[in-house]
Design goal:
Elements lengths: L15 E12 L2 E12 L3 E5 L6 H8 L7 E6 L2 E2 L4 H6 L1 E4 L11 H11 L4 H15 L14 H13 L5 E5 L7 H16 L3 E6 L2 H7 L2 E6 L2 E6 L1 H6 L4 E6 L5 E6 L2 H9 L6 E6 L2 H9 L7
Parallel strand pairs: 3-8, 3-9, 6-7, 7-8
Antiparallel strand pairs: 1-2, 1-4, 4-5, 9-10, 11-12, 11-13
Bound molecules: adenosine-5'-triphosphate and magnesium ion.
Adenosine-5'-triphosphate binds next to helix 1.
Length: about 300
């Protein structure tokens, strides 16, 4: 089943659906988002990758009109969100980092509430719910209380709620955080399918492998600024090819990068016998470490 027209990849169609220029969002004196410029293209699967406190959620909340901002412009599907927030809102679905469902209602009741919130005509409400319930495989759970569902199924309910008004752009703020590997992979399949069926997808993540597995393009964000942008391959290629990773005698992980295996091997021989050494190809994580000086989950 396809929810929307067939997907068009970024390379074939460079129509911008999100344009952000000079975005600043402050909390008191502190800029959580500090001058972000960003384009997202129709049909694209884009990810924000960044450590805790980088500004991912704040950016998503601004772009999805859940909160205001201090400077800059944001255009969503041709609509300036400051001037025409209601036009922008109809184009956007958002799955927030923390589940925003009503736990005291059933799955179906939550979905029905969302159809009312989005002013979907009464005659269409049930059929929209049915279509999406089937799409995400929630069939047997519609009468469950939300509080009785596991994290992965709650996320699916959130996805249905976010899609009921047929948005063109779906924001997913850390969609798989805290889920076990099986639930994460099932959600990846669903997110991939949604994107292939035509929904432009903007997700945030801590998980490098999630950005690599799902996304056409990744923006690395740190301290409110985008510090690198490109395909996972382009980002990985920014740094040299071979990584020497080792745990030093105090248990701290260290990374060093080399242009070839020979120089990596030569460096590895200088390490002490107690160091546990791994020599491997560089990855997106290395790019992240090199740029931010921290691992993604690091503080
Ligand atoms: N409502 C708020 N009031 C004050 N400061 C805030 C508020 N929301 C976020 N911040 C601050 O803004 C910065 C960016 O936070 P944000 O939640 O956007 O980061 P994040 O990248 O989503 O982090 P995480 O990976 O932990 O979800 C942090 O320093 C945070 O403490
Ligand atoms: Mg966040």
């Amino acid at each position: 089943m396809s929810l929307q027209s067939v997907s068009i990849g970024r390379k074939e169609n460079m129509e911008k659906v999100i344009e952000v220029r000079g975005l600043v969002k402050r909390f008191g004196d502190k800029a959580a988002v500090n001058g972000v410029d960003l384009d997202v293209y129709k049909g694209e699967m884009f990810a924000f990758l960044g450590p805790n406190g980088a500004g991912k959620t704040t950016t998503v909340r601004v772009l999805s009109t859940l909160t205001g901002f201090d400077e800059g412009t944001v255009i969503v599907d041709g609509h300036d969100i400051k001037k025409h927030p209601d036009e922008a809102k109809t184009r956007i679905g958002v799955i927030q980092q923390h589940i925003s469902l009503d736990k005291d209602l059933t799955v179906w009741e939550n979905m029905m509430q969302h159809t009312m919130y989005h002013k979907i005509p009464k005659s269409e409400r049930q059929s929209r719910i049915d279509e999406l319930v089937e799409y995400v495989g929630l069939g047997e759970y519609t009468d469950y209380m939300v509080s009785d569902l596991s994290g992965g199924w709650k996320k699916r309910v959130s996805i249905v709620c976010a899609l009921l008004h047929k948005p063109k752009i779906l924001f997913l703020d850390e969609p798989t955080a805290g889920l076990d590997i099986q639930a994460r992979r099932m959600l990846w399949d669903l997110i991939r399918r949604l994107n292939m069926d035509g929904t432009t997808t903007f997700l945030t993540t801590h998980y490098i492998e999630e950005a690599e597995a799902l996304c056409h393009r990744v923006g690395i964000i740190n301290k409110g600024r985008i510090i690198a942008m490109g395909t996972p391959q382009e980002l990985t290629d920014r740094i040299v090819k071979v990584a020497v990773e080792y745990f030093d005698s105090s248990g701290v992980t260290k990374y060093n990068y080399f242009k070839d295996r020979e120089s990596a091997n030569a460096y590895a021989t200088t390490l002490t016998a107690q160091d546990r050494v791994v020599i491997r190809k560089t990855s997106l994580e290395d790019c992240f470490v090199e740029l931010t000086g921290t691992t993604v989950g690091g503080m």
